[in-house]
Specification:
Elements: H1 2-13, E1 25-31, H2 38-54, E2 59-65, H3 74-87, E3 95-98, H4 101-114, E4 120-124, H5 130-135, E5 138-142, H6 147-157, E6 163-169, H7 176-185, E7 193-198, H8 202-210, E8 216-223, E9 225-226, E10 232-233, H9 235-245, E11 250-252, E12 264-267, H10 270-285, E13 296-297, E14 301-305, H11 306-311, E15 324-326, H12 332-367, H13 375-384, E16 388-392, E17 398-401, H14 403-409, H15 413-416, H16 427-443, E18 447-454, E19 460-472, E20 475-485, H17 489-514, H18 516-542, H19 548-576, E21 584-586, H20 588-606, E22 609-613, E23 621-623, H21 625-642, E24 652-660, E25 664-671, H22 699-709, E26 713-718, E27 724-731, H23 733-739
Helix pairs in contact: 2-10, 3-4, 8-9, 12-17, 18-19, 18-20, 20-21, 21-22
Length: 744
């Protein structure tokens, strides 16, 4: 009987042991400052959410405010306690929650008359007596005591530090905070000299901070102070005085100070404290006795201000794991990602156009070397160019803009020279563009950029600006560049096609120059045969005994040789004629046969044996016959040229056509030359790249442009033994037509 009575007493002493709790829990949260204080709202939201997540029956959530920042003094505290006593009389509370030492002190003083028997869950910045906590049925943790951790991190980043200055203080001038910091930093007193600036007046603190040596750090803890007019300065106000005067890094322990001038540190947060308090509260309301919950250290996180990291040269790689970086400036890509994508597409097209214009300019320079020495000729060329052209001297001042630019701006040459040309830039683009110009002058590098410029009618137009450094007799003499209005994309694309057609035509003319001797021989044969047959026919006709059949045979030979000469002339005219692109079904074998016929005599003169392997019933390809003829002729002529340095008996050229997988037709041209250097293979299709002394470096580049425009691809490699192999793959006519992609 006694045993049963003892068990009953023990069970009755344990909350919730005999009856499970039902319904929502009732909690009262005590705040230090008034309701308008922003941190209170953050704390409330985090705490309420954590409690709701842990309690399926819900939470009755009450909030009260000590408001000592607005109503200080013991009398006000007594009035508040009386108000709370009457307000919550008869109201069941499962727990009282407090997140600061000030509210904890208030509850410990008045709890027995206000909330007798109600347990307290607390978070405090200051150490608390275990006996006091146990007697008050309170459980909780201390937070913000991360001074040693933060200082250890700061000393790693600033190894030359010799002095540390700690700023703290309270309205009571009780040195309470300084005592906590001293205990935590005692192990570091041999490494750095620590000076405590405790309870300094604002002006006195500012003067002291202003004179700190460069080899020092500041640890800003927390301080409230009254100014000369008796107004309360909060911790953030005091920090502002420190930041304004400090020339050394400042570290802290509160999240609220991040963004106000401190680098950061291991800081406490309202969210972290709220989550831990919610856990302690739920343990208490679910039956755990407060005295069985040990007082621990609260959570902290490494948090830093990105701007201060940049200011003091601290690399992000040196930050602790899981660090939080705030106030990071977004990158250009993050701000303008889709604009960059769009502008990049335009930039690619315009880069090709600029390249075409520069190619044209190079050709003019090769044909007229005196152009660079003649300012008048340059001006004439620039004024007629389909772009805005400018010249900057080595002093970064504009010395020339062309007539299209002046027409675009509606200003005179004098107004645009010097720095006048930059007046039309959009204000948002000016600093960025001028910085690009300046850095290019320092590095002597080419550049390309986009900016908005005001036209004479007031409209801002986007310009693509490219510049290259000028050198005269090896001496840097400034920059020359061109701008293109990229607002009208269709006009830019039309100009691009016209430029490419012109280059292709010039290349065909160049190729015909290399075939001059062969063409002469090609035409001389039928012309000589015509002459011989005509003379023979004349003799037969003058001889009355001659057989008319012999005359007819001579005349037939004349007709055949005339057609042969006419066919040669037709092929030459077709190659040289500038014409629009015509997509038809083309027999690649016929194109190869015509090209080989064209170079037959050239191959004989070079003593090159040509091997032709044509696949019968080869599928046709969809394209322009003249352009494809040019590609085949370029590859064959390159092959013939490559065999020039080989012994006569070792000179051969192989031309093969075949049907490939995936609905394509392949042309392969292989020569017996010495091959292509491995370092040159990636560049053989670049414009102006050539190994021939008199070459222009355009044949293979234009061939690649034509092939890719037909939806195919072209590439080069070295043979297993020696020589180079060029492959050209084109889609079958049926496949190309199904793709419905226009060829340009």
């Amino acid at each position: 009987m006694r045993l049963m009575r003892a068990v009953l007493v023990i069970l009755l002493s344990i909350p919730g042991a005999l009856a499970s709790r039902s319904g929502p829990i009732n909690v009262l949260v005590m705040h230090w400052y008034d309701r308008a204080y922003s941190s209170n709202d953050v704390f409330d939201q985090a705490l309420h959410a954590a409690l709701e997540a842990s309690e399926p029956e819900g939470v009755e959530y009450y909030s009260e405010y000590l408001e000592t920042n607005r109503f200080p003094g013991e009398e006000q505290a007594h009035l508040l306690s009386e108000y709370l006593r009457q307000k919550y009389a008869g109201r069941r509370l499962d727990a009282i929650i407090t997140g600061t030492s000030q509210t904890l002190d208030f509850l410990l003083k008045y709890r027995h008359e206000l909330f007798p028997g109600v347990p307290i869950a607390f978070a405090t910045e200051r150490p608390v007596s275990g006996a006091v906590v146990s007697e008050a049925e309170a459980a909780g943790f201390t937070f913000g005591n991360t001074y040693a951790k933060t200082l250890d991190l700061a000393l790693k980043w600033h190894p030359g530090t010799k002095q540390l200055f700690v700023v703290s203080g309270t309205l009571n001038h009780d040195n309470a905070i300084e005592s906590i910091v001293r205990d935590d930093l005692r192990p570091y007193e041999r490494r750095v000299a620590i000076t405590y600036l405790t309870d300094f007046a604002p002006d006195q603190l500012a003067a002291r901070i202003r004179t700190l040596p460069k080899d020092s750090l500041i640890l800003y803890v927390w301080q409230q102070v009254l100014d000369a007019q008796g107004r309360l300065l909060e911790a953030r106000d005091v920090l502002a005085r420190v930041v304004n005067e400090a020339k050394v890094p400042i570290y802290g322990r509160s999240f609220a100070m991040i963004g106000r001038g401190i680098v950061g540190g291991y800081v406490w947060t309202e969210e972290g404290n709220a989550a831990k308090l919610a856990g302690i509260t739920m343990r208490i309301v679910n039956g755990t006795r407060p005295k069985d919950i040990p007082v621990e250290l609260g959570p902290d996180v490494p948090m830093f201000d990105w701007r201060q990291l940049q200011r003091w040269g601290i690399d992000e790689d040196r930050l602790p794991p899981s660090s939080i970086i705030r106030f990071r400036n977004p990158t250009l890509w993050q701000q303008y990602r889709w604009r960059i994508v769009g502008y990049s597409a335009v930039l690619v097209l315009q880069a090709v156009l600029i390249g075409a214009l520069l190619v044209q300019r190079k050709r003019v320079q090769r044909a007229q070397r005196v152009l660079q020495e003649s300012e008048e000729r340059f001006r004439n060329m620039a004024d007629t160019a389909p772009a805005f052209i400018w010249v900057l001297g080595p002093d970064k001042l504009c010395t020339f803009v062309n007539k299209p630019w002046l027409d675009f701006r509606g200003r005179t040459m004098e107004e645009e020279l010097g720095h006048g040309w930059a007046e039309g830039m959009h204000p948002e683009d000016r600093d960025r563009c001028l910085a690009t110009y300046s850095s290019s002058f320092v590095d002597r590098r080419s550049f390309q950029m986009e900016y908005r410029c005001r036209r004479k009618d007031g409209e801002y137009r986007w310009l693509l600006d490219s510049g290259i450094p000028l050198y005269r007799e090896g001496k840097f003499s400034g920059y020359i560049g061109s701008c293109i209005d990229v607002t009208d994309q269709k006009r830019a694309e039309a100009q691009l096609r016209r430029s490419l057609d012109e280059i292709a035509h010039l290349n065909r003319v160049s190729a015909m120059g290399e075939l001059t001797a062969s063409l002469a021989h090609e035409l001389n044969q039928p012309l000589a045969a015509i002459l011989i047959n005509a003379q023979a026919a004349s003799r037969f006709l003058s001889d009355e005994s001659s057989d008319l059949a012999e005359v007819r045979a001579c005349l037939a030979d004349i007709v055949a040789d005339d057609k042969r000469a006419g066919e040669v002339i037709r092929r030459v005219r077709a190659l040289l004629r500038k014409q629009k692109f015509e997509a038809t079904a083309v027999d690649l074998n016929d194109v190869v046969s015509d090209a080989l016929q064209m170079v037959r005599n050239d191959a004989l003169l070079r003593q090159v044996t040509i091997q032709l392997e044509s696949t019968l019933s080869l599928p046709r390809v969809l394209g322009d016959r003249v352009q494809l003829y040019q590609v085949v002729l370029n590859l064959i002529m390159n092959g013939l040229e490559a065999t020039a340095k080989q012994p006569p008996g070792a000179r051969w050229l192989s031309v093969r056509t075949a049907k490939s997988s995936g609905g394509t037709v392949q042309l392969t041209v292989e020569d017996s030359g010495k091959g292509i250097a491995e370092s040159d293979l990636p560049r053989v299709f670049e414009r102006f790249y050539t190994t021939k002394p008199e070459g222009l470096g355009m044949g293979l580049s234009i061939s690649q442009t034509i092939v890719e425009a037909h939806g195919g691809r072209i590439w080069a490699e070295n043979g297993a033994g020696r020589g180079a192999i060029f492959h050209c793959m084109l889609p079958e006519a049926q496949q190309a037509a199904a793709a419905s992609a226009p060829i340009s």
